[in-house]
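We modelled the chain as a single entity of 80 amino acids. Its sequence is:
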Amino acid sequence: MTADQLKDIISAGLACDHITLEGDGRHWYATIVSAEFEGQRTLQRQRRVYATLGNRMQTDEVHALSMKTFTPAEWATQQA
């Protein structure tokens, strides 16, 4: 799987303001910014992202995904 493919899958299931992906095709590191994360704890946010991947984690299309998740307001403070 390419970074663009993974980005498209996540974006199709989650309204994202920003996504960056780095990886080798199986192991990925993502930074994801979405207003849908408002009021959610880290684990809830991660589960939301994993839900967009469906069974791709179980079928090994995506072997590992490490992520940092931010609301738009949190992301703005990271960029300041």
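As a brief sanity check on the tokenised model: Helices lie at 3-13, 42-53, 72-79. The longest strand covers residues 27-33.
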